[in-house]
Amino acid sequence: MSETGGTEKTGMAENERSLAELFPAGLRGKRIHAVGAGGSGISAALWLARERGALVSGCDVAETSMSRLLNSKGVAVSLGHDAAHVAEADLVVVSPAVFYRRPDLPELTLPRERGIPVVKWQALLGYLMQGSIGVSVAGVHGKGSTTALLGSLAIAGGLDPTVEVGANVIEWGSNIRLGHGPYFINEADEFDFNFLFYHPRVAVLTAVEYDHPEFFSSYEAIRDAFVTFLRGMDLRDQGELGDIASTAPAPTLILNADSPGCLDVRAQLGAAWPGRVRTFGIESAAADVRAEKHDTGSNSFTLVIDGEPIGRLKLATPGIHYVYNALAAAAAADVLGVAREALVPALTAFRGLRRRFEIIEDGNVTFVDDYAHHPHAVALTIETARQRFPGRRIVAVFQVTLYTRLHRFLKQFSEAFDLADEVAIVEIQPSREVDTGLVHGSDLVRLIAARPAFAGRAGAVYYSGTYEETAAMLRDRRRDGDVVVVMGSGPVNQAIAGARSSRQ
């Protein structure tokens, strides 16, 4: 893939044009099939298309929580692949992971032969957002939680938004919330330039640093992708907005003033960029939305907007990263016109997302299920566990997604586990890649064990293999009082059920 992404971005523009040309009058009655329908994002797009009148179906290689959710709502998701799935389709949507790893699938080869359009699910979601006031949350960290928080604040403010999140929101029991108001809030992923399908009126930028080394060749490449995304925002004058003009805010970028990468992106946009900018932060005294008097133990703080204390709140979800998420959501909600007095109660009531420091009690052992998959996020999750459960033994269980990610960030990952008492490294989750022998999980074990933090603790760091082997190790090694922090963006949390089975 190219560093600049010129070819990919041209392809995206064609995707957008093809959908607009295919469905100028909407989706009602159109047949849409999703390949990999059990994914967290694609399932939301599929469900929303169904609500717009499309005849939708899907398939996947295995059952997932999202495919079960779709089936429960009357969307047929078949197991396995078959060309018959798409024989009558007007459109096939697919996740980037499936497209890159399995371009030979029958659901993809038949459409090519018959001229049936195949697009990424993000193109479909971007199409579905047209006509709404788009609010997109982007960033290397925290975008899912921030999207859900903002959705909850908008609901509390009476805006009745539609919200799409790449994870299951505990309060909604789903990854999508269907509303009837003018706002469409979504999580905007940077991988593969996915977020270029979205043209929000309001954009939130949580954090920018180097990630996705399998796609972006450098920090500058990923930074420039964020810049391109922001330049594609809806910057129209109010008079050009038609029916939504009376409720649409001015084009606004909300960014983390404590993130050097976010500040760099803003600088790259240049002084001539016509949108408004609002900032949030903890360290920056000049931020428009701030947390003051933060108490680490209780994760409570005073919310301050434009220098005015709005109220003191305690988050149900631990960690300073959730304070940043809450500030980002509050800043965006303020731009959307949510009454400031509604912010503190709604932030306090928010229960979080599945797999975002989700606590699972099992007798005298506590499991934490978390999506952390970047070195920074892994270190922060372990630190949060140490703060949330002082004095208890922290067992970190981690699965890297992608061989190239581990190879590129091997040193950074090895430094992320210093606050853990014990570390288990699960076999690499290949996702869209094939194992070429580039790197192995045992390489990470070796480097972690050599860290000063693990000196004199032979056997505290080990390779645990498959999910089943990891679960067996955890059963054998668990002690009363343990906090087992299971991290990774793949289905590594399968090990939790296995580790609990003998004690249930």
Explained architecture:
The chain has 504 residues and is of the alpha/beta class. It has three domains: 6-123, Rossmann fold; 131-349, Mur-like, catalytic domain (UDP-N-acetylmuramoyl-L-alanine:D-glutamate ligase), CATH 3.40.1190.10; 358-503, Mur ligase, C-terminal domain (Protein-Tyrosine Phosphatase, Chain A). It is 35% helix and 22% strand. The protein has helices at residues 6-22, 40-51, 65-72, 96-101, 106-114, 121-129, 143-156, 219-231, 260-269, 320-336, 343-349, 375-388, 403-408, 410-414, 441-449, 467-477, 494-500; strands at residues 31-35, 55-60, 77-79, 91-94, 118-120, 133-138, 162-169, 174-177, 183-188, 202-205, 252-256, 276-281, 289-295, 300-305, 308-314, 358-362, 365-370, 394-398, 422-426, 461-465, 483-487. A hairpin with a 4-residue loop joins β13 and β14 (300-305). The radius of gyration is 22 Å and the shape is globular. The termini are far apart.
Concise account of the structure shown:
The chain is an alpha/beta fold and 504 residues long. It has 3 domains: 6-123, NAD(P)-binding Rossmann-like Domain (Rossmann fold, 3-Layer(aba) Sandwich); 131-349, UDP-N-acetylmuramoyl-L-alanine:D-glutamate ligase, CATH 3.40.1190; 358-503, Protein-Tyrosine Phosphatase, Chain A (Alpha-Beta Complex). The chain contains 17 helices and 21 strands.
